[in-house]
């Protein structure tokens, strides 16, 4: 039953995880500094630290955490250091939270350097999106928007989930004109649902004209089925925006022509940090137009172009444009038809993303060559990567060594998704070994639908079950024997919620007793595992 694993017992890998290198320690300090200086619910309540103070705190936190972990490691000299890594991470997180809650230190004259002192907490949200999703009349609009008609400090408005017709739009128009100069964020997602095209276009034009000239940092026009006509209906508003930091155009029917219109109408995207184009019918030519926007957005941190029907040519154009986005932290290109060529092209620009923390590349038809190229590139970059998603890419055991080496280098990984591939036991052996050492922050692993038998399932279960904070292992829809299922439940007997459902498992999908075939693969597996660089 365990023959695959037993074959490696005489050649174990020696993994020493402590102490971390100086570059790793410096990277943690840099990461904590960024977290401490990023606006959050804590900074709004306690104040935002300056970069200088955050850097000083981060260095102190790292030194204390390192000393605590080293003291622990010295008490167990024969250990591999994995528990010291966990203590290092936990202590750093605890002390960083304390620094956030402490807030900025007072100046000598007693003045606090925080958001409240700067007036930042005066931001107030006006939101009518709650309640029933329905058409609203002019009379209802007047009543809903009454708080905006008098003096107020509202600078964020959300009209989502209410369908405006012409009567409602004409009531809203003068009210928006009166407050547009104080607005910073506008959410008009899903605000014309069910309206005839002609009426919807006129409503969008009215809102666009009323808001023209407002200096926005955030604009959400998602879920409006706009197409090119809708994009151009927002011409006045879009052309007046030169300070946008976040733009959302999801589920908007953004075709090739609509994408070109967006690129044409946006006057400046130099400050743009977030750009989302999820669930549109953009295609290759539309992706090329979006790539032009990306080229003009050097500050981009979060880019989403998922489920947009983009093929190889458009994919190559997009990823090449992303090469200039040195500050990218989150990249989501899921559910497109990129293929190997676009995957290889992406691997060439990935090294520029030193701040990358999340990457979603599932269902891109990458196959082994594309996956290997990306895994090799990620291994040498993105040291703070937390989420890696390569599901549904026809990845086999051939690429597993590269993927495993990449995983081994990502000690801050929290979620790993390799579902719906063809890794089989041969590939899962390598992935399991990569997960064994360190990875103290790992909370979720998905290896469902990978033709895994009990041999592979046992190894990955044992690799994750003891990790602090781990929450879910999904190995559903594989070929695990009934006896193997019982053994899995026994492995997780102290934490049954960690093991995901197994209702789609097929114990007869593959014969677990094909010893001859397993034996024939042992030598090749041994050589791959021996050469795995962890």
Automatic annotation (TrEMBL):
What are the WPP domain coordinates in residue numbering?
A: 15-109
Indicate where this protein resides in the cell: Cytoplasm; Nucleus
Where does it primarily localize?
cytoplasm
What is the name listed in the Swiss-Prot or TrEMBL entry for this protein? RAN GTPase-activating protein 1 isoform A
One GO CC annotation, please? nucleus
Supply the alphabetized keyword list: Cytoplasm, Nucleus
User: Disulfide bond: is it a keyword of this entry?
Assistant: no
Query: Could you cite one Gene Ontology molecular function of this protein?
Result: GTPase activator activity
Q: What Pfam families would the database entry show?
A: LRR_6, WPP
